[in-house]
Amino acid sequence: MAQYPSPLKETNRLQWIDEARGFAIFGIFVVNIGAFNAPYFLYGGEETAWTSSIDHTLRLIIDIFFQASFYTLFSLLFGFGMQLMKERLEMKSLSAYPILGRRLGALICFGLVHAFLIWHGDILLTYGLIGLLLLAFLNVRGRTMLSWAFLLMGMTVGLLSISLYQFREYIGQPNLFAAEQALSNYQSGSIIQVWEQNYVDWLYANEGISYLLLIGTLLPLFLVGMFIARQRWLHEPKKHQATLRRLWFISLLMFAGLKAGPYLFGNPAWFSMIQDNIGGAFSALFYIISITFLSQMEGARKLLLPFRYVGRMALSNYITQSLVCFLVFYLFRLYGAMTPVGLMLMVLVVYSMQAAFSKWWLTHYRFGPLEWLWRSITYKRIQKLRRTEQEV
């Protein structure tokens, strides 16, 4: 009988991976909402918007615990998921390349819509494009994979950090003209002007060698995620507890040293590539191992349930957050008007509503709405969405 590709059964899911994915969606929202509300996080001059002592404290917390910690976490999980899909397809004697290629192609399409019609800070398009490079590593040995990851990350971060240090006196100058233009268009422009400004912002964020730098920093994280999946450390955490504990302790030390440590020396701007990419990678590893450990504890497991529901619908929830922000800041004209404290309250309210809705949705349906579409495209078969009465 012919074997057909199909999504992973619920009973075979690693719940702590869903929880880590849901936690990443929360952290990404915390970081992104400031850029949704004001242009200073793209064009510089954050101190113009975050002025009070409370604002400064929030910026410190976000920079140490959230900034560059959650897209890195999502990147590790992206590579982890690619490896899991490859293994499941090979168990059915199916070629992984066409199926994973369709999956990435669909992600690129989602990203194009999200990046140019909703928000310039999209990660889906970038993940889809760089993910295509990951296909070349599907059958590469683990050690070779890690060597490529360390080489790419080391060269990219090292060379750019040296360049930033040499020009450290010129770093951090805000582009006030561009920021004022963005404020004007987002606050009072028509929907066409909003889209035009969004396109300008996307070009500014991705111009020049920016995409090459993204390849050098994201592809290594994808590769490390694939390597972790191959080792099966997170499949059987109790069996690999000693290894995970060592990695947890090392990642905690590196997290503290590279993310918080720079503040002891004035948090120099030239160190940002190391702080974000190396420190962010270790903080992501620390978070995913911590969630894995907590998920094995009966008492903590209930606290992680909201993250699990959101993580099961990560794509739908990520896009929904952007749609909510598009509505609030651009259509309701609140761009630049909300305080940092108000933004954090908005994150908590929206995320709580997403967790509640995701729980309800998954009680009645097998996948989130965009997840269903993504899977249907990936497997070239319309997936069954609604649960049967017995499943409900």
Automatic annotation (TrEMBL):
Alphabetical UniProt keywords: Membrane, Transmembrane, Transmembrane helix
Record InterPro entries = Bact_Transport_Assoc (IPR052529), DUF418 (IPR007349)
Domain DUF418 as annotated: residue spans: 229-380
Positions of transmembrane segments: 20-40, 60-80, 100-117, 123-140, 147-167, 208-227, 247-265, 277-294, 315-335, 341-362
> Among its keywords, does the record have Transmembrane?
yes
**Keyword rRNA-binding tagged:** no
Q: What is this protein called?
A: Membrane protein
Q: Which organism is it from?
A: Oceanobacillus picturae
